[in-house]
Predict the 3D structure of the following.
Amino acid sequence: MASVGGDVAGDDRDDFGLGALGSQTTKRDLPLSQFSSDSGGVKHRGTSPRIYLQEGLQEGLQEGPMSYSPILVVHICAGSLGLLSGTAAMSFRKGSPRHVLAGKVFVASMLTMAAVAVYLAIVRHQPNNIRGGILTFYLIGTAWLTARRRDGETSRFDWVALLIPLALGILNWMNGLKVVRSGASSQDGVPVGMIFFMGSVMLLAAAGDVRMLVRGGVLGAKRIARHLWRMCFGLFIAAGSFFLGPSNRPLRLLSAVGLGQHLSPALFSTTLYLILSILPLILLIFWLVRVRFTNAYNGKSMPGAGSTG
């Protein structure tokens, strides 16, 4: 999700984090411990991505009114709604009316967020976030199609769609190998391991598309699993870019609406951010195991169109 302060007047340094789950840092992003108390200089630090909390807590509460472009407001609202509706959809009973409604809201908001993120990344020349936005749109879009279709149904569109994760996965792996050959451990604050991880997920998604098409579609529990993991991984990308992005995005968002200064600093801790970021992956694993390796969903058809997991 876009940085809350990404379009602040006079400050457009933040990126959108969709493809990175981590990003470039500025002086304001560094922990307070990284600054000397008397000189304000930056101490030596590693290249691994960090949660830049303490300094963000101080500056986030001290910043004055911020201005946003309309397109960035759309991105922020869609991303926030996607996080809330995705969490709700995973909480409600699968197939229930509330689950289906939350899933439809999730799909619409995530597709909007991803499309706007791609536009903003193109404008700001951020190739990692262009790839991340396209991947998110692809995952949510194909998960939605899986829910809407009947068992075993495919189309020519699927042959075109599989080119997206295939191309993105190859590009990510080429980029990761380039970083390794250069002797660096990260690129723009993104660890090389994350680059390879995202590239591998993209290639696995492409492989899943090929297998579906060769077999003439997916049925039953396999269809539910396909829908499930793509929705959950899209939510993971959004959560990671929001909570682990630069400039303490949750604090800046809450401060912008006048709530940040009234909340406990414990709510903006590194540990809580990490838990909230990986929670979609934990739920993804839980539901995949439940769907594929138990009898809970054997012989059952997909819930209503637009539901998540």
Observations:
- The chain is about 60% helix and 0% strand.
- Residues 97-123 form the longest helix (27 residues).
- The beta strands are 186-187, 190-191.
- Confidence is low (pLDDT under 50) at residues 2-20, 22-65, 304-309.
